[in-house]
């Protein structure tokens, strides 16, 4: 059995975790992953080996004094590994002061003695003229590169062979459109809380309602944007509840601040809405549980990119909140004709109401099969384990 090192965002992020499970479900190989937080889904998968990364000397020293270490380039590739798969979405972004990290990334890829592939990614935004050259050199040496948007490929006209297919999660459309699951997610892998409270052991009431995906924009776009966005969701939740529907907020990633956003919103709603009209689900590593929540939804407000993708794949009415070009490109791909809410418009005070009947669907004809073509090169490198082999 071939041994495949999988590099991904290993912080219990629902979208990234779904990428990894799709890989492990598809191929008969042993997948070696490093996770900084224990993940129930990976632990239970027969082809995934989950381990914590060994801390460096700098990381141990900084941990003793309570200071975080800088991001570490690369990933451990054990002796005997056959392949490295780097799978993710927004994995090529240049943040202020990060050029040193990306130079180390290029050195890591140049040092590899195994082939590597890069799947599902998009490029940018970036800040410096050097950055595209660093990424271009990484892409040029890869066995295969498949982006999820044409703009990313266009940024590297001198790198031959780059492919473009829809986001990998669209490839799971058949399963996501299933009706199983009531949405009654309990506290085993995630946390469901009811009545606007933030306890860790509550149980959600039954039924789908309007599921609202959140993000912490205060940390990425500034305090003003974060405050305006959270106010918008508070107002939207109240409008939805007035129509007689229930609201469930969903966290995709605790590490990135989703749960803190939910807590703040629930605090603001408490006392002003009927008891039991709002609850929340907090993803902690149980993918089946989280996907059941989204499948059971009557409609979805998609701030997280993959909340929008999953809602479209599941055939749900969706109100997308756009904070980057990647969401707009995906909506255009599937012919989405409903309302779109940009973070910029929220900051400017423009509002889209809670008339779920006006929210849109997508036309996924051919999209799921194209998304599965993200794996075209891997299909030649690894034996299939699923029924479609």
TrEMBL record:
One of its GO terms (molecular function) is transferase activity. Residues 180-193 have a biased composition (Gly residues). Residues 13-324 form the Polysaccharide pyruvyl transferase domain. Keywords: Transferase. Residues 180-202 are annotated as: Disordered. InterPro entries: Polysacch_pyruvyl_Trfase (IPR007345). Pfam families: PS_pyruv_trans. It comes from the Bacteria. The keyword ATP-binding does not apply. This is Polysaccharide pyruvyl transferase family protein. It comes from Pengzhenrongella sicca.
């Amino acid at each position: 059995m071939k041994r495949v090192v999988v590099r991904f965002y290993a912080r219990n992020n629902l979208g990234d975790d779904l990428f990894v499970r799709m890989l492990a479900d598809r191929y008969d190989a042993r997948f070696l992953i490093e996770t900084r937080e224990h993940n129930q889904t990976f632990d239970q998968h027969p082809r995934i080996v989950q381990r914590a990364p060994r801390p460096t000397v700098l990381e141990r020293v900084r941990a003793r004094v309570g200071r975080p270490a800088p991001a570490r380039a690369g990933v451990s590739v054990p002796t005997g590994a056959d392949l490295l798969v780097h799978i993710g979405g927004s994995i090529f972004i240049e943040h202020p002061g990060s050029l040193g990290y990306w130079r180390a990334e290029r050195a890591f890829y140049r040092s590899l003695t195994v082939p590597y592939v890069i799947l599902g990614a998009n490029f940018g935004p970036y800040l410096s003229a050097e950055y595209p050259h660093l990424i271009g050199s990484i892409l040029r040496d890869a066995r295969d590169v498949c982006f999820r948007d044409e703009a990313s490929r266009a940024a590297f006209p001198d790198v031959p062979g780059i492919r473009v297919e829809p986001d990998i999660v669209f490839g799971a459309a058949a399963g996501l459109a299933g009706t199983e699951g009531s949405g009654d997610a309990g506290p085993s892998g995630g946390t469901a809380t009811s009545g606007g409270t933030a306890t860790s052991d509550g149980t959600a009431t039954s039924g789908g309602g309007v599921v609202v995906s959140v993000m912490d924009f205060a940390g990425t776009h500034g305090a003003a944007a974060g405050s305006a966005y959270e106010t918008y969701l508070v107002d939207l939740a109240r409008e939805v509840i007035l129509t007689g529907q229930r609201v469930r907020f969903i966290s995709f990633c605790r590490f990135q601040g989703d749960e803190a956003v939910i807590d703040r919103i629930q605090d603001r709603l408490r006392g002003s809405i009927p008891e039991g009209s709002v609850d929340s689900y907090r993803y902690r590593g149980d993918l089946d549980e989280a996907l059941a929540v989204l499948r059971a939804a009557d409609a979805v407000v998609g701030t997280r990119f993959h909340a929008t993708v999953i809602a479209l794949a599941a055939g749900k009415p969706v109100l997308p909140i756009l904070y980057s070009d990647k969401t707009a490109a995906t909506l255009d791909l599937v012919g989405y004709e409903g309302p779109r809410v940009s973070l910029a418009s929220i900051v400017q005070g423009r509002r889209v109401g809670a008339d779920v009947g006006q929210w849109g669907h997508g036309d996924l004809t051919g999209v799921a099969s194209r998304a599965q073509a993200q794996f075209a090169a891997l299909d030649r490198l690894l034996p299939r384990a699923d029924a479609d082999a």
